[in-house]
Amino acid sequence: MSEIKDLIQPDRAQDAIAIHLVDKDGFEAWAKTLSGPQRTALAAQKFDGSGYQVGIVPDGESWFAVGGVADPEELSSWCMARLAEALPAGTYRRAQGEPGKALHGWQTAQYRFIRYKDDKDAQGPRVLLTRDVARIAAAEAEARAVCLVQDLVNTPAEDMGPAQLEAVAEALAKEHGGKLKVTRGDALEQEFPMVHAVGRAAARSHAPRMIELTWGDPKAPKLALVGKGVCFDSGGLDIKPSAGMLLMKKDMGGAAHALALAGLVMGAGLKVRLQCLVPAVENAIAGNAFRPGDVLRSRKGLTVEIGNTDAEGRLILGDALALASEDKPELLLDFATLTGAARVALGPDLPALFTREDATAEALLAAGKDSDDPVWRLPLHQGYAEWLASDIADTNNAPANGFAGASVAGLFLDKFVGEGIDWAHFDTFAWRPNAKPGRPKGGAALGLRAAWRMVQDRFG
């Protein structure tokens, strides 16, 4: 990825190019303060104050920029992102007021995934100044977390398998003084049998494992994070069509979210006892792959009949959620690219949110709105739990009908979460099919900032 460090800096009255922000309604009045040649320059650029427009205005021997926004008095995370994408390299400051929330989009707009090719269009950094110095460190940390998710999801499965996810967790543990425990092989089969079953058909280099990162004061309230780490999903023996496999490098997007959120928690020094769990597997096809109709045992002791090997994410999450529940966390959050049904219902932008507690849902919805990272609640309707019934096991992993797929997947996970635990499940897409200002096409952190805001409010 491109280096996003130091893209926002303290304003110490150093030389900088001014950026004026105007909306469409106020543009004509603002334009009257300009000279004739300046108005002509904007007219030639067809600038009228519409959202995300960028204009360059001559000013003697220099120039200033103008950006169209919805409301100059209340900036969103993305209001200045198009400016960061379009303006030449240099140092900038907002002419009136502070960037505020727009600091985030200014940074993420300059993200580039360049692991496999040079960025021939690179223009150099665009630096934004702010007098709100206290906000810089937190804004940088949040942008780095988003870019970490993008990097991990954008990386193809050959280079982002279970071992590479383990390396990311190890680097986070070293950076923040955490501890890492990884369970593999025979121990994995004994302790996390569903994780082992899903991942056992993969090549040795992509062998399954349970990654556990812990950090914090043992006496503090426990915060547990779980992320689905399916590094590639062929569908297993219930194989996906080629079109369905094309984006399956992103099926570890839940793990990317959980690891990025863990990094934010540790970096901010929140007073929590953190446990971050990533069951990491490749759902491959081989002679030892688990089969439709098999019955798997789980860490919790429940038996699971396999109705579909392509519903594997909920299996590995089941074992991870059971482990996370054993020490009764005050809050348990999981992230997963779990169901196509959530995408059919909500499209690519909105993670489906499932919670046991209404208050937790309300807090996450409010945090998503405040951080410009919206989520949408869907129901854990217990009336649908009967669709997971099995004639020969405690539960089936996939019902035969196609109804309410995201809710039914949530109900399956609910079976593995301990009684009385405050739990929220994010069914996120982790991918942006079309670029928007500050949000490039490709891997995407969707739900991360909402969760982080809520965690900060609760434990900060």
From TrEMBL:
An example Gene Ontology CC term for this record: cytoplasm
Pfam name, any one: Peptidase_M17_N_1
Gene3D superfamilies: Leucine Aminopeptidase, subunit E, domain 1 (3.40.220.10), Zn peptidases (3.40.630.10)
Record has Protease as a keyword: yes
Keywords: Aminopeptidase, Hydrolase, Manganese, Protease
KW Hydrolase (keyword) present: yes
Span of domain Cytosol aminopeptidase: 308-315
GO molecular function: manganese ion binding; metalloaminopeptidase activity
InterPro entries attached to this UniProt entry: Leucine_aapep/pepB (IPR011356), Macro_dom-like (IPR043472), Peptidase_M17_C (IPR000819), Peptidase_M17_N_1 (IPR048816)
Any one Gene Ontology BP term: proteolysis
Family the UniProt entry places it in: Belongs to the peptidase M17 family.
Official protein name in the record: Leucyl aminopeptidase family protein
Organism: Croceibacterium soli
